[in-house]
Amino acid sequence: MKPFKLIARLLALACTIGLLSAPAVAQNKKVTIAQAFQSMLYLPLYVGINNGYFTQQGLDVTKETAGAPSNALAAVISGSAQFSLHGPEWPAIAASKGAPVQIVANCVNGAAVWIATTPDFKFSSIKDLKGETIVTGQMPTTSTSLLIKLLKENGLDPEKDVKLLQVPLGTEIGAFTAGQGKVAVMYEPGLDQAVAKGMKVVLGFPKLYGPYAFSAITTRTDADPVTVQKFVNGMELALRSIRNDPAGAIIIAKKEFPTLDPVVVENAVKRMIEDKVYPSSVEITAPALKVAMDTQIALGNLAAQPVYEKFIVPTYIKSALTVK
Prior knowledge:
This protein is of the alpha/beta class. The chain is built from 15 helices and 10 strands.
């Protein structure tokens, strides 16, 4: 055999042995999160995915849209998803019935609902809504739940003193701008779509209630703790990013909602940042959980407050607050 052929074979063999003996490159663990909807409220999740914060923690996160909170939670309970994102009332109700679920991180910490009216509507208090048709989302949904609670707190009967025109979620703006009601209860980005058409915002539930556990990350109680911690760390980094780089968060929001007017997206994100809808960290305080659950108790959806220490897992949160 010619020398150069022998050398070539030896080199090839050496490379093969080197590859076989080299430690395997660790691959990121694949996990799935089931979100109730594709929602601007869930921007922290999208920032975490787009900015690679979950990847930095060693996770390959796939986002799936379940179409409803109950479907998203069911995916976690069945094991087809490791995490879900929706209102904390869903796992609270499920846990009260024995489901092995827990909340591990905050995502939305303000009652992200606003009341808008036509430009000519005179609004000074909730009592001004008496006799009006109010466009709102079909129950069960937090926007309508909060409205009903607010009406009752102000001495108005939701069934007698107003007419609730309940429409499918996301279609409130159509009925509102078509003149089917002078008042609407809305989420973003529908709210700023209405504002762009000349409607005005008269009341914001975020400022009315303050810290309010509105949407959170749920997982099973028997979930792998290492994986959960990595996910919570990624959410913490994403929330910090929104706080420190709001312009970057707006860019990601425009990417996630390409069919919306970019101006509407920007205004919606700015409003939610200003109204502190996005939390400063993954922490969920006991008062924030209580005010959210009080709404569900008042509506008869939940019998009693969940025990905070058994429902919210502080160890993941405390560890995430120190992540770099």
